[in-house]
Amino acid sequence: MKELQGCGSIAIVDNDKTVLWALGNALRSILPDCPVIWTADSGFTAIARARSVGSCPDLLLLDMSLGDINGPMVCREIRKQADRPAILAMTSFPLADYAQDAANAGAQGIVAKQGDFGELERAVRSILDERRGCYRTAGVNVDFQTSHEAFMRVRSEKESGVEALSVRESEVIRLSTEGCTSEQIAKRLDIAKATVDTLFQRACRKTGASNRVELAILWYKQYGRNR
Question: What are phi and psi of 62, to 5 degrees?
Answer without folding.
Answer: -125, 120
